[in-house]
Amino acid sequence: MGAGQSRSSNVLVVPQANAALDQLKYEVAQELGIAIPQDGYMGNMATRDAGAIGGNITRRLVQIAEQQLAGQFK
């Protein structure tokens, strides 16, 4: 498996969202002061750091969904 490839079996419902999710990953990592390797291989990243990035991404996606739903019911 080369750099940037994932073993995840997760399939995005909207494949075009992959670029947006990657951008979000880098933004969150930067905000947390976590460096993501330039080659894209994150196998050497501390579990704590990976979890912090994933948790913050999830929190942000939930906030976006809540805002969109709140806008529908106004």
Automatic annotation (TrEMBL):
<dbReference type="GO" id="GO:0006265">
    <property type="term" value="P:DNA topological change"/>
</dbReference>
<dbReference type="InterPro" id="IPR038300">
    <property type="entry name" value="SASP_sf_alpha/beta"/>
</dbReference>
<protein>
    <submittedName>
        <fullName>Small, acid-soluble spore protein, alpha/beta type</fullName>
    </submittedName>
</protein>
<comment type="similarity">
    <text>Belongs to the alpha/beta-type SASP family.</text>
</comment>
<dbReference type="InterPro" id="IPR050847">
    <property type="entry name" value="SASP_DNA-binding"/>
</dbReference>
<dbReference type="InterPro" id="IPR001448">
    <property type="entry name" value="SASP_alpha/beta-type"/>
</dbReference>
<dbReference type="InterPro" id="IPR018126">
    <property type="entry name" value="SASP_alpha/beta-type_CS"/>
</dbReference>
<dbReference type="GO" id="GO:0003690">
    <property type="term" value="F:double-stranded DNA binding"/>
</dbReference>
<keyword id="KW-0238">DNA-binding</keyword>
<comment type="function">
    <text>SASP are bound to spore DNA. They are double-stranded DNA-binding proteins that cause DNA to change to an a-like conformation. They protect the DNA backbone from chemical and enzymatic cleavage and are thus involved in dormant spore's high resistance to UV light.</text>
</comment>
<dbReference type="Pfam" id="PF00269">
    <property type="entry name" value="SASP"/>
</dbReference>
